[in-house]
Amino acid sequence: MAYKTKKLESWQWAKEIRYRHYQKLQGARENGIPIFTGSGHAPWSIISGIGDFAALCGEPWSASVGYFPELAQECSEAMEAKGWGRDVCGYLKQYVGSMLIDKGPWGPFPRPDYIFQSVDCDLESSWYNMVAQHLDIPLFYTEILHDGHPRTPKDATVQYLADHYARAVEWLQEVTGKEYNDQALLDAMTLTWESRKLWSEICEMQKAVPAPLDMKSMYTLYLPAEIEPHNPEVVDFYKSLRDEVRHRVDKNIAAVGNERCRVLHDDIPPWHALHLFRLMEEYGVVVSASAYVFGLSGVWEEGEDGVYRAQVTPPKINYPPRTREEALWLQAWMDISVVRPMTNVQSAISVWRSLIRDWNCQGAIFHINRGCILTSYGVMQGRKALKDDGVTTMIYESSHVDKREWNETEVRDRIEAFMESLGLKPL
Amino acid sequence: MIEAFQDIINGRHDYARSWKERTGGKVAGCFCTYVPEEMLAAAGVLPVRVLGSLRPQELAEAHIPTMYCPYSRDCLAEGLSGTYDYLDGVVMAKACMHLQQAYECWVLDVPTGYYHFITMPWILEDPESRAYFLSELLDFKETLEAWTGVPLTDEALDRGIDLYNSHRRLMHRLYELRRPDPPLVSGTEAAAIVLSSMLCDKAEHNELLAAAIERAPGRPDPPNPAPRLMIAGGENYDLELPLLVESLGANVVIEEQCMGSRYFWNEVSEEGDRLGAIADRYLTRPPCPTKTNQQPRYQHILDLVRDYGVQGVLLVQQKFCSPHAVDIPDLTRFLADHGIPSYFFELDVTLARGQLRTRTEAFLETLDLELV
Ligand code: SF4
Ligand code: SF4
Description:
The complex is a heterodimer of chains A (427) and B (372). By secondary structure, chain A is of the alpha/beta class.
């Protein structure tokens, strides 16, 4: 059976937001706007309290570098010349390499003024230590602790981060010389929650058969909530996207017209080889779920019943937040929730089980990403759990950014074998 | 000089089993040197460091991707194979994500009874870090009490602290014997002594250690004069490494590794709140490279270089070990900036002896030239 398909209208808007984000970043120095850097999901809303700023978001910047193979190669080589080789995170190499050679995809490397970083992986502090040392700029660390608790973080872990954020507010005032505006923080925080909640709602609609979105598109659509969740335009964008996706679900409009099988894919894909998703479509396979894509820009609850579901209201505090403390607590809770399935094997397994069951997937593909320890965390154990459940699974190894790790023939062979085990032939 | 220590290492599983039989106590496997072992000892538990087999294995393949360090996979494999079936519990202090994953897979697939995860922050010096880590130690204390039935009163904690502090003081006395030129204790001997201390009852180890320290000055077979090296970097519990390096005409006089000086370097203060003092000890010990601020560690390395008369540094890293892989290029430059030559060697489950020999010989030659 072939489903109706239709081009996604919101697609262009997502690309425009991304374009404007980078345009602002590249022009920030000229326009007297301070540039902050930190990882993709750094707590940008907190910075809003000092006024306008541009964000150089670590991983998205590296991913953008990765789209330009020659530049990516140059960055890797600059790092390797300094001794940082195979075992160093791919994103770190692209970002720091881009800083070292002072080149980015759209011009020179946009030199940040400040670093505000929530460490959530062994390598993130080294990453931003390198930046701080090279550029001699102020740095503030917070940390998203992995507390070993599956499903929900310990209250103390959330409070720890919130306490750091409270001190970050003091630091922001000190280094920028600007007065902190609590109302701006509360507004930004409310917008952040809204963007992320909307993204989760959109991801939940992926349960529908046929899936309204394909994963390749979702890789672009999740980005605004990661890099500018506090931007009112981003909230408007996600409202519009949600309405469009709902319409697609109501009208049975598919992302892939010949959908006949659904699989999940985790974690980060090799950005330079997204054509592998098109290859699967030739078999009528749509990648409809991903813990990474859903989680990174959403707000989720791992229910006691094992169901992964969009979090409707924040736990434990008033919403919208009314005080600085509440806003910072909310930011802390979101930050920890985002990385939980990537830093806790039991959580990861529970989320993958829910994605298979509740998002109607028949198989699972896992990317062993040699370029990132965080997103490869728990992947083998997760695959084992799904296999034990009788789910057909496949793994392939490469790197999200380093093309030299890519073996097209091998991955194609694996996909073909996987399709065969799902009982599928090319259409 | 080290037979007794080597026997403990080689017979570590039999040792732990017989310790259990003898004492009726419980044994806990520890996954990282940030586990506050004095608390386990205070509860009458024998803490033993979980180690791999140093033999190629495939058991962990279905659980941990091959891009994670061989040490972490080797540890899990030993759990999966049943080698550690005598453990009554396992305790993790959040270290690197490699070892964290090994621990989490262990929890899922190696039935051990008691599991406890202590969240050790990456940021060590902030006031929030101390409060958080202290709350983690309180949690640990509670679950430990429930598991063992032993109340961890201040007196009990003091017993654990005294035992461990005595051990740390003895280790420092031993390490003093590495400072003369030539040293009175070889690097291989010191490595065996530290490693064995992670695998047996500290009271027994203290006795053996005190006797070894007594004997060392008059020993008939002290190390010969040779270039003085430090080993710095990631995990190593293969004694072949210092043995081979020393057989090529060097003395390993100090190491900056978790299975080395980082394990015992500082003491728990005997003053003030007991858990607070334990927290401070772990927050201020020489940090590992996963921590956000490496300046204290680099300063510590420089101090060691000065105090032990180090002439060159062997930097080691387990294959795929990301924290050390990021650190080593910086550390190499730092050492070079301070006029200290170094060379690098990558470790795998089994030691690449040929490569290590060639690298070491080449390094020692350049070192000779520099010394001339
Ligand atoms: S390994 Fe992954 S999570 Fe860690 S710094 Fe690199 S990209 Fe970020
Ligand atoms: S060797 Fe490196 S990666 Fe392995 S456990 Fe130690 S610090 Fe972690």
